[in-house]
Amino acid sequence: MLFAFVIAAGVGYYSGLTTAASKLITPDEINNVEIRTRNIKAVVMVIAKSAPEAVPQGEDPNFFSSGFFYKPNLIVTNYHAINNDPVSIRVQLFDGRQFPVTIEAYDPGIDIAVLRVSGVTAPATIKFGNSADVLPGQKAVI
What we know:
Blueprint: H1 2-24, H2 27-39, E1 43-49, E2 62-71, E3 74-77, E4 88-92, E5 98-107, E6 112-117
Antiparallel strand pairs: 1-2, 1-4, 2-3, 3-6, 4-5, 5-6
C-alpha cells in the first residue's frame, strides 16, 4: 500500500513538472522554434580572420557572426562582421563543413553585406519577406 502511494505521489509530482514546464512554452516560442527548425540548413557561421599583427597578443584573430543563404551561392550577413579588413573569410555550414567566401557587395549605412561562397551550393535558402505583409506591432524574425 505504501509502495502504491509513493508511486502515485511520484507520478503526480512528475505530472506537475510537465504541466509547469509546458506553461513556460508560449505559442510565440513554439513559432520561433518551428522557424529555426525549418531554416537551420540555410544558416551559416561567418568567420572573418584578421591578420595576426592587427590583433592584440593573446586574442582570437577570428570574428564570428551569422548569416544565411538567400540564393544558391550568396549569403547575407552584417557589414560589421566583415569590415575589419580580414585576411580571409569563410563560412561554416550547419554540418560543420567550411568554405571560403568573397565579398560580393556591402552597404555600411544599413550594416549589410553579401558574400559569395565557392565550393558548395546552398543546402537550403531563406526567402525574404515582404514588409507590406506585416502589420504594425507584429513581430518579425530576423
